[in-house]
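Title: [Solved] Anterior gradient protein 3-like 3D structure

Original question kept below for reference.
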Amino acid sequence: MHSFPLLCSFLLCNGLMVAAQRKVQELPDEEEEESPAQIRTPQTLSRGWGDDIEWVQTYEEGLARSRQSKKPLMVIHHLEECPYSQALKKAFASSTEIQRMAQEDFIMLNLVHSSSDDNMAPDGHYVPRILFVDPSMTVRADITGKYGNRMYTYEPQDISTLIENMRQAKSLLHTEL
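Solution (posted by the thread starter after getting help):
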């Protein structure tokens, strides 16, 4: 007779333990889903250079789209771990004038690896460097930054030079092509 209440108590305790274990097993999954540290944003082609800009994936795609649209191709060579690239990226992304022109007037490509086209490195494979290619697929070696030893590099304080060079790349289309 004493065994029946003991058996009932054992079953009740066992049921409560199983229910508690299920709750504990569910909690970590819910916490992981809601934790901001666990939420990962997808990597986009912008890589932080401008999320509202339409970026092409490859140099070849950029050349084809440039030829088709009659817009110049702007190629940004950079490295994610390079502090100079990061500083230029921040200045580039925060310039409303650059962002507007990039969206409206250019085919845009940013590369974190070297292009197989030697024309994309007229004075070396350094980063960051920005080159312009016109729709006839000519790399515009005449549109340079202000440094003699690295002619296609820009620093954050050179944003006004980059804006002028973007305007020049646009205007050359109307006078040369």
